[in-house]
Amino acid sequence: MGRLKGKRAIVTGAGSGIGRASTALFAAEGARGIAADKDQASVQANPAAIEHAAPVMVRQRGGSSSACAASKAGVIRLVQTAANELYATGVRVNASCPGLIKTAMTAPILEGAWARGSEGRLGELNPVRRHGGAREIAAMAQFLASDEASCVNGQACAVDGGPSSTHSFRRRSR
């Protein structure tokens, strides 16, 4: 509790799934910042929504920003560029890159696999043999925002159960 007290954060996609879990975890740990989503009503319905952010981080010469996008290499390059542009300001910019995470967006994929009886194939290329949860991605974002990650900047951290580290070979199901 209080791991992020005095910290500022910007959470995008805060209305549901990973963004909502991140917003709740950041607020529970004492962070303040901005919770944004294209559906503003979803953000306002989130009781743990956090308020304020980036200019404040620069003024106080410290902070961390964590972007969440697995499928967009552009976001990773944006994180690297932003980290470079904010050189010597004390603001860090990192990305958590989720793999297959159970959210409202991926539910149709998972439910379709369960209905076909092929749910076991979803983890075929994943060393942990399961999909992840939104809270696991939120925990990575929380770590990246915390003082424990004070030397982590401009990085894309995979939270995918391992496929990104093992894509050069494929294990057979047992």
Question: What's the helix and strand layout?
Answer:
Blueprint: E1 8-12, H1 17-28, E2 32-36, H2 40-45, H3 54-59, E3 63-68, H4 73-85, E4 91-98, E5 101-102, H5 107-116, H6 119-122, E6 132-133, H7 134-145, E7 156-159, H8 163-166
Helix pairs in contact: 1-7
How would you describe this protein?
This protein has 174 residues and is α/β, with parallel strands linked by helices. It has a domain at 8-99 and 132-159: NAD(P)-binding Rossmann-like Domain (Rossmann fold, 3-Layer(aba) Sandwich). Helix content is 39%, strand content 18%. The chain has eight helices and seven strands. The protein has helices at residues 17-28, 40-45, 54-59, 73-85, 107-116, 119-122, 134-145, 163-166, and strands spanning 8-12, 32-36, 63-68, 91-98, 101-102, 132-133, 156-159. Strands 3-4-7 form a three-stranded parallel β-sheet, sandwiched between helices. A two-stranded parallel ribbon has the order 1-2. Strands 5-6 form a two-stranded parallel ribbon. The longest helix has 13 residues, at 73-85. The radius of gyration is 17 Å and the shape is globular. The chain starts with 7 loop residues before the first strand and ends in an 8-residue tail after the last helix.
